[in-house]
Amino acid sequence: MDISIVIPLFNEEESLPELTSWIERVMSENGFSYEIIFVNDGSTDKSQEVIRSLASANPNIHSIAFSRNYGKSPALNVGFGKACGDVIITMDADLQDSPDEIPELYRMIVGEGYDLVSGWKKKRYDPLSKTIPTKLFNATARKVSGIKNLHDFNCGLKAYRNDVVKHIEVYGDMHRYIPYLAKNAGYTKIGEKVVQHQARKYGHTKFGLDRFVNGYLDLATLWFQSRFGVKPMHLFGLLGSAMFVIGFLAVCAVLILKIVSICSSTFAFYVTNSVYFYLSLACMIMGLQFFLTGFIGELITRNSPERNNYLIAEEF
Ligand code: UDP
Ligand code: MG
């Protein structure tokens, strides 16, 4: 099969018939063998009935329906597990992404050998409250991930080689960072294609402004995982040692001040009056905590079943 189209959706009943017939038209014009996998993320409207009736008219349509709303990332993850095509295309269900982009995305994966091609909504039809923070967000993601050629990490329209989606796990809200997940899994040929974007025709966006806060926290998590995921002691040991050295120097300062005050006056000052005393206490306790966090982290990674999973490029 040439293409699997994975579509996560949450309450998108109005868009589904139009989206499906648009995809069907593009697929038959290009002669692709395909499947559409609708992952219904716990919709409370009539989306599932609509999907059922669409599937009864087209055997290429499949569906997985969650019993409740888990989020876009779990929906994508489950869709990836089921997808059988050589190339996997993901797109949003709200008609903001255009199926007309699919043939070129397919060609870039199959013809140019990309592992992943991400859409770039160069001209966006979203409110300013979304487009401006998104620019900042993408600039940070580029810097942290080291994927310098991507302008739009969170574009719903993306294409993957089949084995890429089988080797990444999209969880939580990590759909924003799939290129980073793919890079961490060893897939570094990541391309970009400018894609058409439409304003939302029906319904409303499912994400609020908290997306930006959560987005940054997730980026910090991924950065930590990719740098120190299997060697947490390298980070926490360094921090712990640094704190301990600062604490030790502060103790020395307290000691020296005490000796000086004993030698130079009849009334020696109390160590509890010295700022260095509290500094040494705080630093030593924090240093110890960092160290212990590092040890616990090491024990946890030691037990991780994936600690020795490596993506082999070639073997004789
Ligand atoms: N979506 C989903 N589960 C959710 C939220 C969203 O499957 O919990 C789907 C949604 O139906 C749409 C896609 O993810 O197909 C993108 O969502 P949306 O259009 O609301 O995001 P935006 O375009 O505003 O970034
Ligand atoms: Mg949308």
Mean pLDDT: 94
The oligomeric state is single chain
How does the major sheet shape up? 7 strands, mixed
In terms of structural class, how would the helical and strand content be classed?
alpha/beta
Low-confidence runs of at least 5 consecutive residues: none
Number of helices: 10
* Shape assignment: elongated
Helix content: 40-55%
Number of strands: 7
| Largest beta sheet: strand ordering | 3-2-1-4-6-5-7
Ligands bound, unique: uridine-5'-diphosphate, magnesium ion
Strand portion: 5-15%
**CA-to-CA gap between the ends?**
29 Å
* Computed Rg: 26 Å
The run of helices and strands is: EHEHEHEHEHEHHEHHH
SSE blueprint:
Layout: E1 3-9, H1 16-30, E2 34-40, H2 47-57, E3 61-65, H3 72-82, E4 87-90, H4 102-110, E5 116-120, H5 128-145, E6 158-161, H6 162-166, H7 178-184, E7 190-194, H8 210-228, H9 233-264, H10 275-303
Parallel strand pairs: 1-2, 1-4, 2-3, 5-7
Antiparallel strand pairs: 4-6, 5-6
The protein binds uridine-5'-diphosphate and magnesium ion (MG).
